[in-house]
Structure formats: C-alpha cells, structure tokens
Write a structure and sequence with these properties.
- β1, α2 and β2 form a beta-alpha-beta unit.
- α1 packs across α5 and α2 crosses α12.
- The chain contains twelve helices and nine strands.
- It has 312 residues and is of the alpha/beta class.
- The radius of gyration is 19 Å and the shape is globular.
- The protein has a five-stranded parallel sheet with strand order 7-6-5-8-9.
Length: 312
C-alpha cells in the first residue's frame, strides 16, 4: 500500500515526486474501472464529501461528485447562491457549521486566493482545493500530468508550453510547480500585459522559460496547453481586442506547426473557440486531448480521496 501522508490537498508545493507518482498510478487504476459497465466501488463507503463551490464550475464540481459517488461516498453539493453565505455568513462560520456535520472531505472552490487554506485550519476533515482565486488548482495539474503521461509515456524530459492568461491562471501556477517537480521543462507564453514584473520574477524563480512570441515558445514543444482570458478577474483592459489577441496568441495550425510533429494539445476549459484556440486545433483528432482531460479529472479525484482515506 502506497503511503500518502497528506491530510489536505491545498497546493502542489508540499507534494514530493513520489506523492505525485502515487496519485497518478492510483488514478490509472480508476481510469480502467470507470470505463467498465459497473463503475461503483466501495472504498469510500460510509464517508461523506461536501462540494462547497463559491464560484461556478461544470467540470471540477461534477467530477468531484462523480468521483465520490463511484467510490461509494455520500456526496452533498452546496449551492452557495442559496446558502447562508449569501445572507452574510463569514467563511469561517460556514466552515465551523460544516465541521459540526462531521464530513470526511470538503472540496472547495473560492474566488479569493488563500481562502481554502483558511477554511482548512477550521475543520477536522480533509480539504481539497478545487481552485482558489489566482493561486492554485492542484487536482487540475494532477489530471493534466496524467493526461500527458498516458499519451507520451513520461513527463521527465518533456517540454511543455503554457500559453495565454498566465497572470490570472491558477491552473498555470499549479502546472508549473508539478511539471518542474516531475522533470519537465516549462515555457510560458503571454503578452507583456499579462506578464507583469512581479509575475516574471515568480516564474523565473520557479524555473519557467518566458516568451512573448508564440512561435518561439512553441518551438519543439511536446505538449501545448492553452488558457482562456479570465475576463471576470480583469479590472481594465489587458488586450486591445479579442481579435488581435487571437491573431498573436491564439493557437492555430500555423503556430502549432512549430511544435514537435507528435505534440499534443491540452486546455483546462472552458474552451473559448476563436480566443485561445481555433476549432481546427480544439477538435484535432489525435492531437487534442481536451476531452481526455475531463475523463482523467474523475480518476484523479478518486485517487486523491482514496489515498487520503487510506492515510487516515
């Protein structure tokens, strides 16, 4: 039995290479089980998962729900729009209320960076970060790594280029941390307006290669990840227009031709066609693994909860 001694999953930072490998290996087992006719298992029978999402989500919340139910857990989805939070209750009071109900896992998404860490300090159960502000989204990075490893066979030694709104992307931050731990070279490509000095300093400190030219950033890349413009987090104008942004930073066939011939395409979604990627690339058979990422998300979240339960 693999030892995974982490009570919470709030960030990629505390995870060792062995921890990451353990999650990916366990998730591999769940991929095959999830493709069977009978998907139900009982490893989390008797345990309770609460999905507490303060931001809208389709892929992440649904995959946590499926992951919990397929492992036999009781799953509760809390609609924040109809909850006491909307009436003025603080995050800490919400955490204390949920804690009194004795859940075993809480999956949390929040618009403020660090909110999930605060909540984890107030509860006895395991907290899984489903995305906090512009900070991190650890399970997304894990499912991206699983998608890459299943297609290419390894992560060590690969070159992965992340393109788009790096400034506001928690996905980019978690992927950078994970991919570097696993031995990959990480490049980030964005316009200067989405790569201010403080972010450049952080990225350089973490070992990322920084590019503003899409074609140079994609040269000989093994995997290309596109990110949407997170306009809901933008105050002011970061790009002249969507049309101009796509011209320089949207992934199309010509730009993608600078990557390796067998390169793959990923996108955490939602996929905004004609902004970060064109339809030709998003639907490219054999190259686009966007739907594979969705499938891997369920398996990874199953693996995380199962390993946490075993560790406890």
């Amino acid at each position: 039995m693999v030892s995974f001694q982490h009570r919470h999953l709030l960030s990629i930072r505390p995870l060792s290479r062995a921890d990451i490998t353990a999650v990916l290996d366990r998730a591999e087992q769940h991929v095959e089980k999830n493709r069977a006719r009978d998907k139900k298992q009982s490893s989390l029978r008797g345990l309770t998962l609460i999905n507490l999402f303060f931001e809208d989500s389709t892929r992440t919340r649904t995959s946590f729900e499926l992951a919990g139910k397929r492992l036999g857990a009781d799953v509760i989805n809390i609609s924040v729009g109809n909850s006491s939070v909307k009436k003025g209750e603080t995050l800490i009071d919400t955490a204390m209320t949920l804690n009194a109900m004795q859940p075993d896992f809480i999956a949390v998404r929040h618009s403020e960076s660090g909110a999930v860490h605060l909540l984890a300090q107030k509860v006895k159960c395991s907290v899984i970060n489903g995305g906090d502000g512009t900070n991190e989204h650890p399970t997304q990075a894990l499912l991206d790594a699983l998608t890459i490893r299943r297609r290419i066979g390894r992560i060590d030694g690969l070159t992965v280029t992340i393109c788009g709104d790096i400034l506001h992307s928690r996905v980019a931050h978690s992927n950078l941390l994970l991919l570097k731990k696993m031995g990959a070279t990480v490049r980030v490509v964005a316009p200067p307006s989405l790569m201010p000095k403080f972010l450049r300093a952080f990225l350089e400190e973490e070992g990322a290669e920084i590019h503003h030219d899409m074609r140079k950033g994609l040269k000989d890349a093994d995997a290309v990840m596109t990110l949407r413009l997170q306009t809901e987090r933008m105050q002011g104008s970061y790009v002249p227009s969507v049309r101009e942004y796509f011209h320089y930073y949207g992934l199309n066939r010509e730009k993608f031709s600078h990557a390796k011939p067998e390169a793959i395409i990923l996108d955490p979604g939602p996929v905004i066609r004609g902004v970060q990627i064109d339809s030709d690339m998003a639907d490219s058979v054999g190259r686009s693994l966007i739907l594979d990422q969705v499938e891997m998300g369920v398996a990874v979240r199953q693996a995380v909860m199962e390993l946490m339960a075993e560790g406890r």
